[in-house]
Amino acid sequence: MTFTSRKSILLVRNPTAGRRRRGLVDEVVRLVRDAGWSVDLVDTAGAGDARRLAETCDAERYPVIAVAGGDGTINEVASALAFTQTPLGIVPSGSGNGLARELGIPFVPQEAMRIAVDGRDRVIDAGELDGHLFFNIA
Hints:
About 35% of the residues lie in helices and about 20% in strands. By secondary structure, the protein is α/β, with parallel strands linked by helices. The strands form two sheets. A four-stranded parallel sheet has the order 2-1-3-4, with helices on both faces. A two-stranded antiparallel sheet has the order 5-6. The chain is globular. It starts with 7 loop residues before the first strand and ends with a strand.
């Protein structure tokens, strides 16, 4: 796994999403670190944690925030990052992975992480319903 630039990335993981894929995320972290990246992996403990982590994240330290989780965890982080310049990387790890599927993000964690750190930025629409943002389904 090679990357073209050296950056730090915050990887927010929902440890209850896609339990059978948990070890794959650990492997992705090892590969990215071996490639010279600084990766901080933070697990969520409950609803709202992913959003709080993204809202309080130092954007200068972490120019990319990635999520290893399902649509709910991704939605929390995406809601916090909406209307900012911080890109969101997605490592599909949930049971449905609807947003990742619609965006064409690979389900192989190593390939998804490569896109998160070396891919091009894509702007997507957000919807709002009752004061809450959503990105795939409401």
